[in-house]
């Protein structure tokens, strides 16, 4: 396979995942803002989580609900907006057209055509839930086409590595922006304010249902961290994502019969961050844990690009 | 043939009077359609018009979702557009096709012999059949190709000759398209779409298949691999990238052939071979089906500012390390000034009379011809010698006085840049309109593959149709559409 093609697949699926995650963040933000008075600060943290705060501030003077949502969903000046990432996903899909089945290509192309219509003008509050669910449906259709029609070969592996690098990054950032509400030192443990924030963290990861199934009705911060960092059953947890990255890089090593620096880095990441107890993570500092994880994850992504010659 | 002709040849109904071809077709229907259309017409008469209109919309939806688009130059942000598709097939009888394909094969063989000759001994010039300055002062002539032996001796691996029909057995070549003809993906997708929408039509008509074109293309390209290639030849399609107007087609062909779609930045010279950057290191390539113009393939040997090509690829080519299809320098054969010599060229290399007609052509570089052309602009079609795609041409009979006056100035300023031809009365085929079937002008681009193993012509080709009533411009860049083209088994 061409290095360029591997890169196109990796980025196509990173962008698709990013579009979906951004939609999920907006959803969680909107829900929190609606159910709690004075939650305007919520949009600050949504923008921060989406790594869009800096660019937003360059355009707008203050953070407001409508502008924040517009910036995150449909502003082409924001490279991480849903419309920008969907466009980037489709351009990459075009680049790797020969590596995709017709179903996968058509699902991306349709998603892009559809979202272009959907996001042609500002989304009203009334239409927001519908628009957000459409975004998630469309990206889910691409994922479904990938699962149902693609060979399990190196093409698939690069698509998966891209997906899980992005997802791990997103989950870690969601946790990091709100790490303080999970700290035991937060005096208001169990207060309604914290409950809201905990719900929001879970909702941003589509994890409320799964969490209830495992831990019951009452969220406790330690359990939330445990669930989103270490639980291998939870498909958005760091442990799950890193496990998948390691597996798919492992298949590539087998296929190509060569072990590369990125393989060691993935092993190292799992060992260093995910083979410990949640108490230990809290003892050493959740914020620091997440920060260094994000740095090392970024380094792994760059190593994959080098090892498989995405670019010259 | 002349513009004053009052009859148009309709491929479904035969000769139509001007009034009929501009209006409806009802008058001629009493005598029945031409034989190749008989089964289609019986089917059509039994169809519900509302269902057909639905089908027309369905076809557009299929193309939109498949993403079969082309980018239009000169429009903002290189907008992606669909080429309109018409659901009425163009139908050619097997016997008609047989005669036509003999003419095509003859012409393609002559073109290859001509290219070899002008880049070697130039016998045709020595014999006085072609003036030396037609080559020496021609921008499309590539001096770097002099004395180069392309692998397998093939210059034009893929040709898409543009033909128009004017009568029962009368075909004219408009252009030879010996560089990088496009449109074959539409030929294939049009057929796929028709099979999906009207399976019953294919049970009633025995239509020759076109679907094996990608396999034939791959076989044909592989057969032209350089002699240094041991083992199965590695073929690649070289594209300028995703913003090129024909990118969809490049990806489509690479996909159907099961080969890599590469850009210049994926390639480099490694140990005297061209190699592509894969996830596992550089791997050699033997044959490149390139969809990049000559000027851009090698910044070291041609345009230094080209970012699309591969530095040094031409040196590898000259040393026999890679096959470039089509060979560099083939543009001289489809040059519009050379075109006027094609009857001589065909005769010179095949020893036979040309089977396909050439449109009489005035070369405006010649003072007498120029005078004639200037005197008769309203009746002529004037084209740029190096133009293509329907850009920069004048169609006298449909142009306004102002357009003609403007063009006259351009022509007087640079006469050698233009040729002129009489307006041909292109045949019509029915298309689906709101009011039912209506005739529109069409041309035909059959696709021809050439290898040391022989000449392979896919039965049919791409039919382009001018969707505007009375229009003679079929180019997709100018609002033309396409049709599925059927060649019937006898």
**Integer tally of domains of chain A:** 2
Amount of helix of chain A = over 70%
- Radius of gyration of chain B (CA) equals 23 Å
The number of helices of chain B is 15
How many structural domains are formed by the residues of chain B? 2
Strand residue content of chain A: under 5%
Largest sheet data of chain B: 5 strands, mixed
Structural class of chain B: alpha+beta
Give structural notes.
The complex is a heterodimer of chains A (312) and B (490). Chain A is 74% helix and 0% strand. The two termini of chain A are 15 Å apart. Chain A has 2 domains: 1-150, no CATH class; 152-312, no CATH class. The radius of gyration of chain A is 19 Å and the shape is globular. Chain A has helices spanning 3-35, 41-49, 53-59, 65-73, 82-95, 102-118, 128-149, 154-177, 179-182, 192-204, 208-215, 221-230, 238-256, 261-274, 278-284, 286-307. By secondary structure, chain A is an all-alpha fold. Chain B has 490 residues and is an alpha+beta fold. Chain B has 2 domains: 7-226 and 322-357 and 424-487, no CATH class; 360-422, Dna Ligase, domain 1, CATH 3.30.1490. Chain B is built from 15 helices and 26 strands. In chain B, strands 5-26-25-22-21 form a 5-stranded mixed β-sheet. A 4-stranded parallel β-sheet of chain B has the order 10-9-14-15. A 4-stranded antiparallel β-sheet of chain B has the order 17-20-18-19, with helices on one face. At the A-B interface, helix 1, helix 5 and helix 6 of A face helix 3, helix 10, strand 10 and strand 12 of B.
């Amino acid at each position: 396979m061409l290095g360029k093609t591997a890169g196109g697949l990796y980025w196509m699926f990173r962008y698709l995942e990013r579009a979906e995650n951004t939609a999920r963040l907006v959803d969680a933000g909107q829900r929190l803002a609606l159910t709690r008075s004075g939650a305007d600060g919520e949009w600050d943290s949504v923008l921060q989580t989406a790594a869009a705060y800096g660019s937003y501030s360059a355009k707008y003077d203050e953070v407001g609900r409508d502008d924040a949502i517009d910036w995150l969903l449909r502003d082409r000046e924001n490279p991480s907006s849903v419309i920008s990432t969907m466009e980037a996903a489709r351009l990459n899909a075009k680049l790797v057209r020969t590596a995709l089945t017709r179903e996968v290509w058509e699902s991306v192309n349709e998603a892009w055509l559809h979202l272009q219509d959907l996001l042609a003008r500002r989304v009203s509050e009334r239409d927001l839930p519908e628009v957000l669910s459409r975004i998630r449906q469309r990206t889910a259709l691409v994922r479904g086409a990938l699962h149902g029609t693609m060979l399990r070969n190196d093409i698939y592996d690069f698509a998966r590595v891209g997906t899980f690098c992005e997802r791990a990054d997103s989950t870690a950032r969601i946790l990091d922006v709100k790490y303080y509400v999970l700290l035991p030192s937060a005096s208001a443990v169990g207060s309604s304010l914290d409950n809201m924030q905990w719900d929001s963290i879970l909702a941003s990861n589509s994890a409320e249902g799964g969490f209830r199934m495992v831990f019951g009705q009452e969220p406790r911060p330690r359990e939330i961290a445990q669930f989103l960092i270490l639980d291998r059953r939870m498909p958005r947890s760091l442990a799950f994502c890193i496990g998948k990255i390691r597996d798919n890089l492992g298949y590539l090593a087998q296929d190509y019969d060569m072990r590369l620096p990125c393989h060691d880095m993935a092993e190292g990441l799992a060992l260093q961050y995910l083979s410990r107890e949640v108490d230990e993570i809290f003892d050493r500092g959740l914020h620091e844990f997440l920060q260094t994880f994000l740095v090392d994850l970024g380094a792994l992504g760059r190593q994959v690009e080098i090892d498989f010659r995405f670019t010259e | 043939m002349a513009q004053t002709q009052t009859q148009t040849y309709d491929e479904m109904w035969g000769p139509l009077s001007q009034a009929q071809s501009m209006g409806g077709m009802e008058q001629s229907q009493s005598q029945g359609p031409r034989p190749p259309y008989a089964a289609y017409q019986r089917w059509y008469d039994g169809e519900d018009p509302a269902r057909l209109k639905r089908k027309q919309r369905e076809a557009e939806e299929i193309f939109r979702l498949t993403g079969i688009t082309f980018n239009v130059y000169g429009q903002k942000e290189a907008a992606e557009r669909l080429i309109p598709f018409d659901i009425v097939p163009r139908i050619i009888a097997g016997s008609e096709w047989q005669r036509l394909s003999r003419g095509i094969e003859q012409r393609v063989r002559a073109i290859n012999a001509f290219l070899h000759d002008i880049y070697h001994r130039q016998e045709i010039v020595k014999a006085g059949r072609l003036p030396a300055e037609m080559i020496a002062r021609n921008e499309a002539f590539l001096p770097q190709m002099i004395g180069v032996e392309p692998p397998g001796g093939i210059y034009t691996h893929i040709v898409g000759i543009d033909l128009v029909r004017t009568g029962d057995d009368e075909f004219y070549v408009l252009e030879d398209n010996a560089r990088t003809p496009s449109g074959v993906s539409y030929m294939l997708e049009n057929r796929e779409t028709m099979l999906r929408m009207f399976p019953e039509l294919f049970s009633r008509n025995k239509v020759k298949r076109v679907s094996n074109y990608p396999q034939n293309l791959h076989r044909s390209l592989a057969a032209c691999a350089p002699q240094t290639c041991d083992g199965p030849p590695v073929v690649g399609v070289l594209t300028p990238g995703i913003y090129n107007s024909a990118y969809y087609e490049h990806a489509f062909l690479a996909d159907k052939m099961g080969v890599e779609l590469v850009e210049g930045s994926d390639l480099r010279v490694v140990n005297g071979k061209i190699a592509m950057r894969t996830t596992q290191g550089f791997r050699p390539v033997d044959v490149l089906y390139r969809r990049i113009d000559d000027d851009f393939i090698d910044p070291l040997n041609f345009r230094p500012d080209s970012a699309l090509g591969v530095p040094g690829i031409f040196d590898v080519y000259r040393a026999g390390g890679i096959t470039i299809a089509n060979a560099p320098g083939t543009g001289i054969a489809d040059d519009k000034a050379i075109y006027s010599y094609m009857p001589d060229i065909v005769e010179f290399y095949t020893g036979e009379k040309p089977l396909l007609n050439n449109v009489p052509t005035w070369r405006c570089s010649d003072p007498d011809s120029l005078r004639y052309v200037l005197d008769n602009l309203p009746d002529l079609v004037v084209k740029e010698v190096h133009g293509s795609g329907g850009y920069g041409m004048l169609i006298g009979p449909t142009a306004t006085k102002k357009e003609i006056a403007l063009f006259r100035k351009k022509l007087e300023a640079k006469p050698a840049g233009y040729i002129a031809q009489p307006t041909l009365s292109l045949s019509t085929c029915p298309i689906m309109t709101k009011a039912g079937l209506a005739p529109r002008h069409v041309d035909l681009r059959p696709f021809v593959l050439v290898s040391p193993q022989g000449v392979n012509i896919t039965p049919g080709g791409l039919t382009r149709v001018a969707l505007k009533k009375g229009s003679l411009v079929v180019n997709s860049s100018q609002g033309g559409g396409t049709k599925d083209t059927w060649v019937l088994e006898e």
